[in-house]
Amino acid sequence: MFVIHDHRIHLEGEPLARDVDAPTVSALLADGKICRSPVGGAVYGTLLNDRAALDGLGDAVHASPYKAPPKAPVLYLKPRNTLAGHGAQVVVPDDQHGVQIGGSLGIVIGRTACRVSVDRALEFVAGYTIVADLCVPHASVYRPSVRFRARDGFCVIGPAVVARRHVADADALRIAISIEGERAFEASTSTSIRNVARLIADVTDFMTLSPGDVLTLGVPHGAPIAHAGDNVSIAIDAWTPLRFSMTSKEGEER
After folding, report:
1. Distant-in-sequence, close-in-space partners of 101: CB < 8 Å, separation ≥ 6
2. Helix H or strand E segment including 26
């Protein structure tokens, strides 16, 4: 079981995550503290779950090799090396092209989920978190190269996991991305083709999700680009925003 009573946050330098209330999360981060990812399970990204993203492909969805829109969720793995937390510095591999900043709702699984029905799907959710699903801009859709999505630090999660009981409707949450303090993008989870319950049901029809795993609802169409030196903030509804910065390889410390 992966149980959250309120808000789960894992400060850098502390061996274990804490379960605290929302004001405490804000207070802990007020002086610039950085965090680890508040979850440690597998993270699965979802492609083409946004109506505008699918519509934006136009006739390309009918081209070879698939010749039709996807009939099942299109997933990809964000491996362990990509995981980072609030306050992270993420290296931009090629600043000419920058990095696409995908802001997504992360669905945190609370107990083993296998062949779950839509009606019961939310019973398997421990909570929700903000996921910055980063990638190198690219044109391939169905088979994105690992080097585009699995760079070090390309999955920033947090700053906290919000317990499910605090989220009245996960399918009607506002997502906002700011770069250098300027609003760069706005979206809503309401534009998803599969809502949270349907996505869980469809994914667990062919694979088991374990406690602590994260399934993203998917990146909305039109995600902005950030470059080295940019500070990024992703907010979902009134939750404490997830903040991180982009840096060049030259400024990287090992």
Report:
1. 132, 134, 177, 179, 184, 185, 223, 224, 225, 226, 232, 234
2. helix 22-29
Q: Which residue has the tokens 């940019």?
A: 230
For the chain, the domain total comes to 1
| Parent domain of 204 | 7-251
With respect to residue 84, please indicate whether it lies within any of the assigned structural domains.
Answer: yes
The pLDDT assigned to 66 comes to 64
1 domain-assigned: no
Strands (E), the chain: 7-9, 18-20, 43-47, 74-78, 83-84, 89-91, 99-109, 125-135, 155-163, 174-179, 182-188, 214-216, 225-226, 231-236, 242-247
Consecutive 10-residue averages of pLDDT for the chain (254 residues)? 96 96 94 94 94 75 70 92 98 95 98 98 98 89 78 98 98 98 96 97 98 96 96 97 91 45
Q: Is the pTM of this model over 0.70?
A: yes
